[in-house]
Design goal:
Blueprint lengths: L1 H25 L8 E6 L1 E5 L10 E12 L2 E11 L4 E11 L6 E15 L6 E9 L5 E8 L5 H4 L9 H4 L3
Parallel strand pairs: 5-7
Antiparallel strand pairs: 1-5, 2-3, 3-6, 4-5, 7-8
Length: 170
């Protein structure tokens, strides 16, 4: 009897969960905003003029295009590509599904800052998404963030600066 009781309890719980899901899914409020999420083209980027120290935060000022009054900037997406040792950056927008949208004659250029923690000694390569070409391949704006090198990190690393005559002394 205990097995049947547990099966019955499980079946009742499952039915209750499905009933709640069906109830929630059937609720359609006109107050609920309808929108799509999309990448938007990055127009240009301003990187720090000076090399950034390891352990510090670099601010990248990113300019992006908004096509209409229904495009709302929602942040950035970043992805590190291990194979190419570069960061891919895209600007994300919410595109509201409303009838009162005004399409701009030319895209409105806005900007936001992306704060990036410099946690290595090597320079960073960033590829900023600009859109797609005629074959639907991504187009990128490539920029390099310079990392400040410590003087002591450079000592002895360059074999051309070592004096080969002093190697044999000792």
């Amino acid at each position: 009897m205990k097995i049947k009781s547990n099966l019955l309890k499980t079946a009742i719980r499952t039915l209750a969960i499905f009933a709640v899901i069906a109830l929630v899914a059937s609720c359609n409020s006109d107050d609920t905003p309808n929108y799509n999420i999309s990448l938007i083209p990055i127009e240009s980027v301003t990187l720090p003029e000076e090399a950034v120290e390891q352990g510090k935060v670099a601010e990248l000022k990113i300019y992006y295009e908004l096509e209409s009054s229904c495009h709302e900037f929602d942040g950035f997406t970043t992805n590190y590509d291990d194979d190419e040792d570069e960061f891919l950056v895209g600007a994300v927008a919410l595109i509201h599904d409303r009838e009162d949208c005004t399409k701009y004659d030319t895209p409105k250029i806005s900007n936001s800052k992306l704060r990036f923690e410099v946690d290595r000694k090597e320079d960073y390569v960033f590829k900023f998404w600009r859109g797609l070409d005629e074959r639907d391949d991504p187009i990128y704006l490539t920029e390099e963030l310079k990392v400040k090198k410590d003087d002591k990190d450079d000592e002895g690393d360059d074999p051309e600066t070592e004096d080969p005559e002093n190697e044999n002394e000792g």
